[in-house]
Amino acid sequence: MPDLFGINGTALQLRSQRMGVLASNIANAGTPGYKAKDIDFTAALRAAEGGTDVSSAIDKATLYRVPVMPSLDGNTVELQNEQLAFSENAVGYAATLEFIRGRVDTVTRALKGD
């Protein structure tokens, strides 16, 4: 089944995990001392393509953000940057999901003989 979706299945998993990390950052924007993180999608995808399992690829590609303007309470979330990253990731997720749906539709039609 992984060959059916190629790298897109892995990309969807990575984007989903990244969405969770970014949502956590946004939710903790007002939490003193919270350190924002992000998953380097490209690095994680390369690692997964190279044979590393997805969870290890995510662990290796998860980094703390360095804020442009650190807050006095030690929180490193820059809300505008997080919202932008979340939106960009959501678009990538939707595009990947649409590709997979198209692939499933193609296989379904082939099995039905359409």
Automatic annotation (TrEMBL):
Q: Does the record carry tRNA-binding as a key word?
A: no
**Where does it reside?**
Bacterial flagellum basal body
The record's GO CC annotations read: bacterial-type flagellum basal body, rod
- Chief subcellular location: other
Describe the location of the Flagellar basal body rod protein N-terminal domain by residue ranges.
10-35
- Swiss-Prot/TrEMBL keywords: Bacterial flagellum, Cell projection, Cilium, Flagellum
Query: A biological process (GO) annotation for this entry?
Result: bacterial-type flagellum-dependent swarming motility
Give start-end of the signal peptide. none
Q: Which domain of life is it from?
A: Bacteria
* InterPro entries, per database record: Flag_bb_rod_N (IPR001444), FlgB (IPR006300)
What family is reported?
Belongs to the flagella basal body rod proteins family.
Subunit details for this protein? The basal body constitutes a major portion of the flagellar organelle and consists of a number of rings mounted on a central rod.
Described purpose of this protein according to its UniProt entry:
Structural component of flagellum, the bacterial motility apparatus. Part of the rod structure of flagellar basal body.
The name this protein goes by in its record: Flagellar basal body rod protein FlgB
> Species name for this entry?
Novosphingobium malaysiense
